């Protein structure tokens, strides 16, 4: 799936209409992209967001088609969700979670406004965001939309947990975080 950098995001329609954003990092073989990579702190921040702040998970997996195609899907880079960051002027940017792979393996260089937006909240650690219900992508206070009770298995032991769903109105993300059910 290819979208040119900084064109209006339209991939998932509901997300596009409730929180308009600009595309960044939707690369595909055959479409040239700017290269040069990013400084290590920005790469690390991307990895952090992809791991803890992904939104809009889709059912399908997207594979990186810039990597050599192998018969073995297990070894290919893939993604199934998106991240959002917000610039100082309020502009939202929507990138696939594969963007971390594109930057670190294929030397992709995202547009400057995206990088600035990414680094605006670079000091916000996951632990702090989690403790205070802050959005990892834009540092806004998030509303708890709903909670689901469940069970997770840790080291063979069953442990009651609460999955709390958050909506961030500022950047338009929506995701769940898991807490122990005390
Ligand atoms: Zn690749
Ligand atoms: Zn946010």
Topology:
Elements: H1 13-18, E1 22-23, H2 40-52, E2 62-63, E3 78-79, E4 82-86, E5 92-96, H3 99-106, H4 112-119, H5 126-131, E6 143-154, E7 157-168, E8 173-180
Parallel strand pairs: 1-5
Antiparallel strand pairs: 2-3, 4-5, 6-7, 7-8
Helix pairs in contact: 2-3
The structure holds zinc ion (2 copies).
Gyration radius, in Å: 17 Å
Structural class category: alpha+beta
The ligands bound in this entry are: zinc ion
Q: Give the oligomeric state.
A: single chain
Element pattern in H and E: HEHEEEEHHHEEE
Q: What gap, in angstroms, lies between the N and C termini?
A: 43 Å
The average pLDDT is: 90
Task: Describe the fold and architecture.
The protein is α+β, with helices and mostly antiparallel strands. The chain contains five helices and eight strands; from the N terminus they run αβαββββαααβββ. The chain folds into two domains: 13-124, no CATH class; 129-180, Single Sheet (N-terminal domain of TfIIb), CATH 2.20.25. α2 packs antiparallel against α3 (99-106). The chain binds zinc ion (2 copies). One zinc ion binds next to loops.
